[in-house]
Amino acid sequence: MDEKMLSLPWQIQVALGCGYAAYALSYAGIREHHKATDITFKSIAFGLVAIVLLLATASWHPVWAVIDAVVGCLVAGFLWRRFGLAWLKDAMKASDASWADDVPTAWATITVCNSTHPVSQIAVEMEDGRVLQCLDASKFADKPHGPFTIGVNGDVAMYVTNTRSSAGSQDVTDVVVPYWGSEITYIPANRIRSVMLRHYTGD
């Protein structure tokens, strides 16, 4: 670590640390394309929340002030990821300023950045033509890694409840077995032809 960083006032060190933690939380899964300048200035932006909180709690014991700053920054990062990114994207579209976002791929947009509408069904078409489906993802929401996991590189882990092929459709009856538990299927990205997601919108 740079000695100049350690020589900074502890409040600045806390703000920078909190800012980076909030940045890492708010851009989890979609920050691999960020450059050093992106990381630096986004961390500083979140660090401003810590600065404000440290100033507001200047009369507190330093330990409690630091805890307050850390929690406040993480909450700010969570809110930005949960609501801020979607709001900014919608505002840009509504004003016709831009229909693109800062996410590098459409795959990341519909998987990693999907926090508004839960996925109700998922179907994966394999390279051999078979289709693996989870017809009701909500049933596996409380299962390990459930209801499914989608990797940034395109691989998928899901609870398969139905399969379709040229021979017809077949239900999988032993996804959840008493005593043995729940069976999740991992599908490597290079075996996948396409992925279909159905989002519940309350309609």
List keywords for this structure.
203 residues; alpha+beta; SH3 type barrels; 5-stranded antiparallel sheet; 3-stranded antiparallel sheet; 5 helices; 20% strand
- Rounded mean pLDDT is 86
Number of domains: 2
From the alpha-carbon coordinates, what is the Rg to the nearest angstrom? Answer: 22 Å
Strand order of the largest sheet: 6-5-2-1-10
What is the percent of helical residues? 25-40%
- How many strand segments? 10
**Which descriptor suits the 3D outline?**
elongated
Please specify the SSE layout and strand pairing.
Blueprint: H1 3-6, H2 10-26, H3 36-56, H4 62-94, H5 106-110, E1 119-126, E2 131-134, E3 148-150, E4 156-158, E5 162-165, E6 168-171, E7 176-177, E8 181-182, E9 185-187, E10 192-199
Antiparallel strand pairs: 1-2, 1-10, 2-5, 3-4, 4-9, 5-6, 7-8
Helix pairs in contact: 2-3, 2-4, 3-4
Structural features, described:
With 203 residues, this protein is an alpha+beta fold. It has two domains: 3-94, no CATH class; 117-199, SH3 type barrels. The chain is built from five helices and ten strands, in the order H-H-H-H-H-E-E-E-E-E-E-E-E-E-E. It has helices at residues 3-6, 10-26, 36-56, 62-94, 106-110, and strands at residues 119-126, 131-134, 148-150, 156-158, 162-165, 168-171, 176-177, 181-182, 185-187, 192-199. The strands form three sheets. The chain has a five-stranded antiparallel sheet with strand order 6-5-2-1-10, with no helix packed on it. A three-stranded antiparallel sheet has the order 3-4-9, with no helix packed on it. Strands 7-8 form a two-stranded antiparallel sheet. It is elongated and about 70 Å long. The mean pLDDT is 86.
